[in-house]
Amino acid sequence: LLIDNVEELLPVVYTPTVGEACQKYGSIYRRPQGLYISLKDKGKILEVLKNWPERSIQVIVVTDGERILGLGDLGCQGMGIPVGKLSLYTALGGVRPSACLPITIDVGTNNETLLNDEFYIGLRQRRATGEEYHELLEEFMTAVKQNYGEKVLIQFEDFANHNAFDLLAKYNKSHLVFNDDIQGTASVVLAGLLAALKVVGGTLADHTYLFLGAGEAGTGIADLIALEMSKQTDAPIDECRKKIWLVDSKGLIVESRKESLQHFKKPWAHEHEPLKTLLEAVESIRPTVLIGTSGVGRTFTKEVIQAMASFNEKPVIFSLSNPTSHSECTAEEAYTWTQGRAVFASGSPFDPVEYEGKVFLPGQS
């Protein structure tokens, strides 16, 4: 059913429905669809893996539930994400369902609502951090390789920033690993930009990019754009990065903030006066491409979009946060506020928009 009706059913299997399913996972729980590994399994993770009935696993999608889509810490209920993602690998990638293993690592949750919910299915404790957390992950990574061999792909999904970058850096030499939020999103967005260039003209290096949101998705996309730009122009990557600006919750990322920035934001701190708001950044930097990875809905305000439209004939506007309710702006807003001139893509699907007799089909990126 899914393979034959992919486009129609994607929003049911993945965003936006999967977000709501994770929020309510405890109260709609029928049967385990994936494998749960908790702190209580420390020392016997290999045994737990051996309980899974399928032997020849090719791909594992694993989460610890700390940053599910734009919804935050959903603890053990984040299982919907690995399950949904692997359904898509079968439907779109032709991977045998039996070769896919969804895993949730349960180290607790800091979500008070869930801790007090009688139907919550996970450990009722605050999240384990530091050494305890990393020892569990280390045991898990070793056990996976022991059980399924060198070639099993381990995909990290919806980990919080502070763990995601570290885990990717720590295991990318010893294991076949991939972080979807840092790398997968980036590749799709880069593809979207290359498609957008066909409409707006110019090369990647001819454009100026402004991001709202400097987490895994934002910095991951920015890195890949800079890498591709460097490849196309033979310019050093540091030069290419100067065309890309990021705004986080404290404002524009600039040189004077460098000391207090997390390590993954540092490459994006350029010389510029400090600016507090996105609107100020748009007006000062005059980007041709605006990308939202903030996880906060309605942050591309009418003023911001109209400012983009005032100095761009065809402003490129990607509001990528999921689910739909967290999108930086809707397709309708983007087209209406730019008089139908925007090149728009979003993270979750939007219906076609009719504006002044013309129908616009928003892209999903």
From TrEMBL:
Transmembrane segments: none annotated. The active site is at residues 14, 85. InterPro entries: Aminoacid_DH-like_N_sf (IPR046346), Malic_enzyme_CS (IPR015884), Malic_N_dom (IPR012301), Malic_N_dom_sf (IPR037062), Malic_NAD-bd (IPR012302), Malic_OxRdtase (IPR001891), NAD(P)-bd_dom_sf (IPR036291). GO terms for cellular component: chloroplast. GO terms for molecular function: malate dehydrogenase (decarboxylating) (NADP+) activity; metal ion binding; NAD binding. Keywords: Metal-binding, Oxidoreductase. Its cofactor is Mn(2+); Mg(2+). Coiled coil: none annotated. Residues 182-361 form the Malic enzyme NAD-binding domain. PROSITE patterns: MALIC_ENZYMES. One of its GO terms (biological process) is malate metabolic process. (S)-malate binds at residues 67, 322. A divalent metal cation binds at residues 157-158, 181. Residues 1-172 form the Malic enzyme N-terminal domain. It comes from the Eukaryota. Divalent metal cations. Prefers magnesium or manganese. Belongs to the malic enzymes family. This is Malic enzyme. The lineage of its organism: Eukaryota, Viridiplantae, Streptophyta, Embryophyta, Tracheophyta.
